[in-house]
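# step 3/5: fold
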Amino acid sequence: MRPEPTCPRCRGHLEPPNAWSSEWVCASHGPVLPLLAGSPSKEGLAAVRKNAKVPLWLPWPLPLGWLVTGFLHAGDAREGARATGVALTGPGLTSGPADMIMISEEPGVGLGAHLAGIPGPDPGDGFAQGPPHAKVTAEGRPLPLWAVEAGPDRAVYLGEAMGHWLWAILWPSQAGALMIGDLHLCDLREPGIDLDLPYGAACPWLEGTPGT
């Protein structure tokens, strides 16, 4: 995992705060929230839960054979994490493994759009037109999701939950069929949640998004 914060919109280098400014600055996108990747471990989860200001969504129970493979959080010490992500890895529908990252973020952060491989920071015109393409249950409530056009190597679904964007991004694109199933999402920030999560090797997509 990269020890230094990166830009949530391009994973580029950030200039840290200095005597004249309290903001993290990307050469391409200006002031942004610093993004950090967390290890797939109890410690990695605790680091995200500590300052998360948006939901930390996890499908639970996990799909058969899937493991938790890392975390993402974007924010600073003053305002907390305003974007979070949970990475999962499991058996693909054809051959090889599949990966999924569930992102919750405030509008304007740009992490979900970057991982989706689309211009950001938020979905463009045409989002949520027509009937939804998938549905999940979040905190006991049905939540519609719409497919978002993305690169040929991934499937992207997007909705709104608790006033924030909810992205489900899956690699390869065939893994999008997982969203047709009956996924129930729990917010790992909720008090009293102490799940025995199975952890696996770190998801490679946490270190950037090749091909975008």
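# step 4/5: annotate
The chain has a mean pLDDT of 91.
# step 5/5: archive (pending)
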